[in-house]
Structure formats: structure tokens, C-alpha cells
Amino acid sequence: MKFLLLVMYLIGTINCDGQTLHLITVGAFDDKKLSSAVFSDIEVMKENLNFICQNINYKLTTKIIGNADFNSNSILKSLDTIKVEPQDIIFFYYSGHGYNDSNANTRFPIFQLNDFKQHQLLVDDVSDLLKAKNARLSITMGDMCNNFLPNGEKGMGKIISIKGGYVSEDMNPVLRKLFLETQGYIKIASSEKSQFSNAYQDGSLYTKAFDKALTEAIDKNTEISWESLLEDAQQRLELLLPSKVQRSIYDINGKVFPGEVAPIVPDPHYTFDQINKYLNFIANENEEPTLRQKAIQEANKYFVENAHVKLFVNETETDGQSINKLLKRL
Q1: Within the chain, how many helices (H) and strands (E) appear?
Q2: For residue 9, pLDDT beyond 50
């Protein structure tokens, strides 16, 4: 399960010379399924932030958290020790699994760290801690699932691209608007509560969509706003996922997009024992035939419509057939 959220605070006048952008990256480097994508995600974000710092005349410091330190305590300690000046920027980026709780009073995800069963660290928590640092701009960005446990794990996908453009003596107007002239806060999640986020081995898809939207804006869109940038990222995400539903959410100065959502009902979670009970009953020739037939109809609720199964004789695969036909054979 995985993820993207973004929170920004900009306070005070614009005076860039000598200021610092503090980049904190947290990645699930030791996760066998995600490690390749996590490495790609973080390299892309480091490249993005380096480019931005060169353009707005900020110096960049980086802190990487992962492996043995991939836990809430390490993150909280790192945030606590950051020393910032009033005009500094803090950028927190997370790449790894995430989830949500149907009872949680938030639409934004929870980090699935190594100690998540003992301590829940919410995106909202990190956002609040960054606000308390009183930097001019605070950003919390993560790419993570927002689904209810225990409904599976997230795959991963992002292509590392070389940032276009160049640094000139004149500051890029898009970066000035987004990182120096905006005031207030922004918080972004790569998927709505109850949804999965998606990725491939080379990076996370929402991060890819966000990166592409930012790159295109830098080159072409001098009338950019955070709302238009994030909606563009969503549209690019939909092109990458034509057969899946993943809707990002974002809060811009208290206005949440999308504003209205349908009531969230967790997907049912079935165990093998529950399914096996039906299969054994259906296959038992000593049971009443009409009851076995009824059990076939009830068992179908565990499978999607038109589900098919693979059949094997020893280790040799034979022709597949519909689950309904298989249940009747049993």
C-alpha cells in the first residue's frame, strides 16, 4: 500500500538570498516489492528540489530516512531537530506503503512504517509538526495507498526523467508563484480514502503525474496556480490508469477538492476458511442436493462476475472454466 500528499505554508516577505530548503525523504528501501520504485521516486524528487533551489536561489540540505530507521520515532526525531529560519522551506517526501482506518476522522492516509501496529503516524500529524516549525513554506508530500487494511498491498511506478529547462539569471515565474508567492497551505493525497495508489517497479504513478505536470508548467504555463497544477496532475494520472480508479485529493487553504464524496464503506474481507466451508459442503455428496445448489449461489458472492479459474492435473495446466461451472462440478 502506498501514496501522495502535499502541505504548504508560506508566511512573510520574499527574500531568497542565503535561505535553505530542508529536504527530508522517507522511503521503504527494504520492502522487496517497493524498493526499486522507492529509489526511483526519491531520486526524482531530489532532482526536482535541486532544480527548484537553483532557480529560486535557495541552498539545499537533505536527510534520508529508511531501512533500520523506517519508523515513526526516527521521523519524529528528525523533524524535531530541524533548525529553520523564518524564510526557509521544509519539504518532507514519503514513498512507501500507506493505509487508512474506517474510524479515522481524516480523508488523508496513515504512514505504514515498520512500527505502524504500535504507533500510528498520520499525514496530518507530520503536516502539523511542520507548521509548528514556522518556516515560510512547509511541504509534506507522499505517495501511498489510502485503502482500508487488510485489503492487499500496493504495486509501484515512476519513470525518472531529466528535468527540462535551465537556470537563468531571471527567476522562473512559475516557481516564483508556486514556491515564493503563494500563501496559506496545501495538502495532497495520491488517492481518496478507501482507494489504492498504483505504481510500477520504476516509480509511483501519482508522483510521475505530478512531476510531469510541474515540468510542463515550468516550460509553458506562466498563469499557474496550485489548483490548476494539481488538477493537471490528476488528469495525467487518469491517462496512466485507464482501467483503474485512483482519485487524488487536496486541500488548498481549507477548500478540499473534490468537495463531496460518497459514503465510504470498507470492502468485505473474506478468509480462506469461509470460502473453504462452502467448497467442502458443495463437494459432499451426502448433503441434500437442493442445499448444495443453494450453497453454489451463496459461494458466488466471493468471486467477481464471470470469474474464471485455472485447472491443473498434477502440475499440468488444463483448460480453464468459469467458477460457476466448477462449483456445479463439485
Answers
A1: 9, 14
A2: no
| Nearest in space to 212 (alpha carbons), one of 22, 24, 48 | 48
Count of domains forming the chain: 2
Are 95 and 233 in a shared domain? yes
- How far is 98 from 100, CA to CA, in rounded Å? 7
Retrieve residue 131's grid coordinates.
Answer: 507548521
Q: Looking at the predicted structure, is the pLDDT value of residue 236 above 90?
A: yes
For residue 110, the Cα-to-chain-centroid distance in whole angstroms is: 10
State the residue for C-alpha cell 531530489.
46
Higher pLDDT, 226 or 184: 226
pTM above 0.85, yes or no: no
- Where are the strands (E) in the chain, listed by range? 20-27, 59-66, 89-95, 98-99, 110-111, 121-122, 137-143, 186-189, 199-200, 203-204, 249-252, 255-257, 308-313, 316-322
Residue 136 CB contacts under 8 Å (≥ 6 apart), including other chains: 9, 10, 11, 12, 86, 87, 88, 89
Which domain does 60 fall in, by range? 20-257
